[in-house]
Amino acid sequence: MALGKDYATQQCSIARALEVVGERWTLLVVRDAFYGVRRYSDFLSHLGIPRAVLATRLQALTEAGVLVRRRYQESPPRDEYVLTGSGRALWPTVRSLGLWGREHLPGTLPMRIFVHAACGTELGAFGQCPACWTGVDPEDVEMRPGPGLDPDPADPVSRALLVPRRLLQPLETDRV
Amino acid sequence: MALGKDYATQQCSIARALEVVGERWTLLVVRDAFYGVRRYSDFLSHLGIPRAVLATRLQALTEAGVLVRRRYQESPPRDEYVLTGSGRALWPTVRSLGLWGREHLPGTLPMRIFVHAACGTELGAFGQCPACWTGVDPEDVEMRPGPGLDPDPADPVSRALLVPRRLLQPLETDRV
DNA sequence: TCCACTGGGTTCGATGAATGAACCGACCAT
DNA sequence: ATGGTCGGTTCATTCATCGAACCCAGTGGA
Prior knowledge:
Chain A is of the alpha+beta class.
C-alpha cells in the first residue's frame, strides 16, 4: 500500500490497521517473527522476499512499533528485529488468517499445528485452549509440524522450524 | 499482490490466505460486505476506491468463492455481491484487525462497537463472546456506533450505517 | 599485508499494478 | 430525443515491486 498516505478518508480502525500491516509481505514478516525469526538474513532466506522490500518493511514495522530493532552483539555490530507487545497482539490476526486459509482454500494440508504448551491441546477457533477453558498467549503456544510440511526443506530457517517449538522463541540457525 | 502467482514458495496457509485477501483494498471490500454493502456503487462511494480496482477486486473475490454475484432485479439487470460461507468465515480476521488497530494504533477512537446480539457483550479479538465463551457467527453480531463515528457523514452508505444494525443485513441506501 | 567472505543493507533499470479521469452501453423516465 | 443512473472498461501517468548488482564495515586466514 501507499505508505501511510492512503485510505485517507478511512478513519476506521480496520483501515488504519491495514495501513500498517496490509502491505504486501508485511504479515508474512510478522508471521515469521512469531516463529522466532529475528535476523535480516533469516527473513530473507525464509520468505524469498526482495532485499529492498524487506528493508522497507522492517523499517516501517519498526516505526509503527510492531517490531523493535536491537543490537545483540557488537563487533561486528548485528541487530535483530523482535516483536513488541503491540506486535504480539497481532497473534489473533495471524492465527485467524491461517485458520481461514486452511479451512477455506482448496488443497491445503496443515503445515503447522498450534497447541497449548501447558496441556498439548490444539488451539480452538478463537485462540483458546478447549481443554483448559482459557485464552492462550502466543508465548504459551507450541508450534508442531503438520502433515503438509516439507520434511527436507532447502533453507536453514525452514529446517530449524521442523521441530516443535514455542512461538517467539529465538531461532538458532548457524549460531549453534 | 500479484494475482495468484506470487508467494510462490509459500505453501503456508497464511500465505495462501494472503494471496486471496492480502491485496490492497480487498479486506476493506470484505469489511463493507459484513456491514451489509452489496452493490457496486455503494462500495464505490463508501470506500473511495478507483472504479477499475473495485471491479478487479470484486471479480477476484468472486472467483475465490468469497463473494457470490447474483441478480437481484431484471430490467434493468442489477447484480449484487454477497459474502458466501467462506467469506463469512473471514469475520474473525476482520474483527481481530479492527480491534488491533483500535488498541494499538495511537489516537483511534472506536468507530463501531461489535457486540453479541444475544447478550450485549462486546466481542473479543477472535470474534468470540467472552461472556458466553462461544464463537459468534456474524449474523448474531450487532454493530453499534462508537464515539469516533462522524455523526453527519457525506456519503449515503455511511449515513445508513449510523444506526445499530446486524452484520450482513443488506443495506438500504436509496431503494427505500 | 593482502585477500576473500559475511551480514546488512542501497542502487538501479525493467516490469507490473494503482490511480483518476474519461468513455461506453444498457436501461429507464420525460 | 434528451438526460440520468448503473456498472463497468480504457487510457495515460504515477508508484511499487522485482531481481541483480553493487557497497561497506568487520573478521578470519595466509
